[in-house]
Design goal:
Layout: H1 14-33, H2 39-53, E1 57-62, E2 66-71, H3 77-90, E3 94-96, E4 112-120, E5 123-132, H4 137-177, H5 180-196, H6 198-215, E6 222-224, H7 225-243, E7 247-253, E8 261-263, H8 268-282, E9 290-299, E10 302-309, H9 316-323, H10 334-345, E11 352-355, E12 361-368
Length: 376
């Protein structure tokens, strides 16, 4: 029989503990700084930066002045503004001594200050201020290193913002690809029921209004799968009003996956492609029917969505071109959806397309049920 003895692990000596404290304080400051340099983010991060430096006071400022201050010597804030502005202009670290930090308080622990520039993407965006009884070469180097680290976090914030803007631009581009013919034809189909079936015309008109309202909404990168599929249902109702029995749709959805957050307009373009290809082949079939199957199932930590048609199929090489964003390929947003899925979840979650000429097409979407930064 083996006997195991549990012992509490130690962080080792003081050097190890100091390293842990530094890393811990940096990790606490990082989330706020990743939001960019604002008054709110500065307020939330500056106290952790002061703890990281181990000084009586610390502050963060933009190019116009201080945004936040933590610790002692708050009465010196106005005296530091001109230096912060100068550092933001020159990009050079400056030391402020007692001649600038005039103080009548004999017990004040902030007699000198180091002002280090903050740079994001080669642009001076502000300054880190470190207040202390006196400055040393080591403290100046520490201030510059922390300012460099803060600058790196601000650059990541700019990267996140650029990524958000890119995704918004991609959604706008996808909206622009929604076929004008679909809009005209849907309104034409609704008009055809106005006299023969006014109640159905009214219902279809409301569905059309809800579809366009959802497709052109301007808030949120993500939506729930339930909302996305509801928009798909509206789209299919309008298409079935046009084509009648020529379009048959099967929809199977596991209730467990309905609340899952997915990128906005990630399913509807795939369905539009499937309807188009399915109906293209229907004229050559004995029954003249195009069939579409949509499934959404629960698979452990993932949600799997499949859109399949029994249409003409496609050359795999053309599919690769569409996924690469080739505008010459007749595909509604296939590359757009693939790119947004990869941006949101990583390269393991791009579209999977199974197709061949004459064999129909199946498009598979996998999304994790929970992913960092993905929420409705």
């Amino acid at each position: 029989m083996a006997r195991w003895r549990w012992r509490r692990t130690s962080l080792g000596g003081e050097t190890d503990r100091a390293t842990f404290r530094a890393l811990h304080n940096a990790s606490l400051a990082s989330p706020a700084l990743r939001e960019g340099l604002t008054s709110a983010s500065a307020e939330r991060s500056v106290r952790h930066l002061r703890a990281l430096l181990g000084t009586p006071a610390a502050g963060l400022g933009d190019t116009s002045g201080l945004l936040a201050w933590d610790g002692l010597g708050g009465h010196h804030k106005a005296q530091l503004v001109p230096t912060i502005q100068q550092v933001a202009e020159t990009g050079r670290t400056m030391i402020v001594d007692e001649r600038t930090l005039v103080c009548d308080d004999g017990g004040c622990e902030v007699r000198q200050a180091i002002v280090s520039p903050l740079v994001a993407e080669d642009t001076l965006v502000g300054a880190l201020v470190v207040g202390a009884p006196h400055t040393t070469g080591g403290l100046v180097r520490a201030a510059d290193e922390v300012a460099s680290w803060v600058s790196g976090q601000l650059e990541l914030a700019e990267l996140d913002l650029s990524r958000t803007r890119l995704m918004e631009a991609e959604v706008r581009a996808l909206r622009a690809q929604i076929s004008p013919h679909f809009i005209y034809n849907s309104l034409g189909a609704i008009a055809s029921f106005v006299r023969t079936d006014p109640d159905r015309a009214r219902e279809l008109l409301l569905e059309f209004a809800d579809f366009t309202r959802y497709s052109f909404r301007r808030h949120g990168e993500y939506t729930t799968l339930a909302e996305e599929l509801r928009s798909v249902e509206r789209y299919l109702l309008l298409e079935q009003a046009r084509f009648g029995d020529r379009l048959q749709v099967t929809l199977q959805v596991a209730p467990e996956v309905l609340p899952v957050a997915v990128p906005f307009l990630c399913v509807q373009p795939l369905v539009e492609n499937a309807v188009r290809h399915g109906l293209e082949a229907s004229a050559d079939k004995e029954d003249g029917v195009g069939r579409l199957h949509i499934t959404a199932r629960d698979l452990d930590q993932e949600c799997v969505i499949e859109v399949e048609d029994d249409g003409t199929g496609e050359d795999p090489e053309r599919v690769r071109q569409a996924l690469a964003g080739d505008a010459s390929v007749d595909s509604v947003g296939l590359g757009n959806v693939d790119a947004r899925l990869r941006n949101a979840y990583g390269d393991d979650y791009g579209l999977v397309v199974e197709t061949a000429p004459g064999a129909g097409t199946k498009v598979i979407v996998r999304v994790p049920k929970f992913a960092p930064g993905v929420q409705v």
